[in-house]
Amino acid sequence: MHIGYDVTVLFCANGGILRYTVSLLAALRDLTERGETGADLTLVDYAPAREPSPLRTDLGIFVDERVRLVTIAGPQPHLFRKAGWVNFRRGRRLARQLDNWTDAPQQWWTDRETRRRQRQALGALDVFHASDVVQIAPAGPAQVATVFDLSPLHLPDYHLSRNVDLFQRKMAHLCQHADRIIAISQYTADDLAAHFPAAAPRVDVVHCGVDAAVHPVTDRSALAAVRRKYGSIHPFCQRTTPPARYGAGRHHRAVR
User: Fold this and answer.
1) Assign residue 53 a region: left if phi > 0, alpha if psi is -120 to 50, beta otherwise?
2) Between vectors from CA 202 to CA 40 and to CA 67, what angle results, nearest 5°?
3) Domain boundaries in the chain?
4) b/e per residue, 113-152, with b = 16+ CB within 10 A?
């Protein structure tokens, strides 16, 4: 089996999505090294999609004889609003209008060139997986996407407008082309079903795993040291009497 994985998100994401992607890639690398999957892994970096963003992790740690990295270059969309001559009010307004008018043809050209270069660089894939729904997916292999949440849909004011537009394009692509959709929680799965009912039959809930470095502590001396440091009497919550300012007769649960 030949698996392709979109690593473009490693140039753009931070926090949980970055951790999810890095941990999953590390696990896939370990499985291929041990020969437990019988699969080859291709990491796919779409340079036009990430623009000049910094890489958030070292991709070299994932690459070996059965894991290769392919960077697919392509035309960068021309943005008039980034030109130096628009640094005045009417110029900025004109630049935004030009960007709106040229967005569709530039997107068509970028997609066309990307897919042409995909065919040349990737070869035959069996499965193509993208996290954060960043899918400029090659035609042919089964397509899988991970969806973490729909916050750009529910809370657009907390996202850059271009990211909201990108999210809408991603979801349109996903609903039309993805063979399976991974939701990291039942809430996300229900949200997908409510807002994108056409995609609902293809959604599977796969909860995020726990890093191998995180495990229960069994060393009694280490536990005792932590309890002494933080004043903990019991590792679980206990009921205590609240300060007077909370009102007589009321209680709250506190962790000591």
Assistant:
1) beta
2) 10
3) 2-205, 220-254
4) ebeebbeeebeebebbbbbbbbbbbbeebebbbbbbbbeb
| pTM of this structure | 0.70
Extract the tokens encoding 74. Answer: 């392509």
Tell me how far apart the alpha carbons of residues 137 and 142 are, in angstroms, rounded to a whole number.
Answer: 10
Q: Which residues contact 120 (CB under 8 A, 6 or more apart)?
A: none
Beta-strand relationship, 238-240 and 252-254: antiparallel
Could you tell me which of 39, 43, 38 has the C-alpha nearest to residue 63? 43
pLDDT score recorded for residue 243: 43
Of 17, 69, 14, the C-alpha closest to 182 is 17
Burial class, 232, CB count within 10 angstroms (exposed 0-12 / middle 13-18 / buried 19+) = middle
- CA-based end-to-end distance of the chain: 51
d(CA 108, CA 97): 18
pLDDT at residue 250 is higher than 60: no
Could you please report the per-residue DSSP string of 59-97? GGGG-BTTEEEEEE--PPPP-GGGSGGG-SHHHHHHHHH
Confidence of residue 233 (pLDDT cuts 50, 70, 90): low
- Bridge partner list, 190: none
Q: Which amino acid is at 187?
A: Y
Question: What confidence score (pLDDT) does residue 179 get?
Answer: 93
Tokens representing residue 171 in the block: 């979801």
CATH number of the domain located at residue range(s) 2-205 in this protein: 3.40.50
Whole-number Å distance between alpha carbons of 76 and 90: 25
User: Where do we find the tokens 């796919």?
Assistant: 44
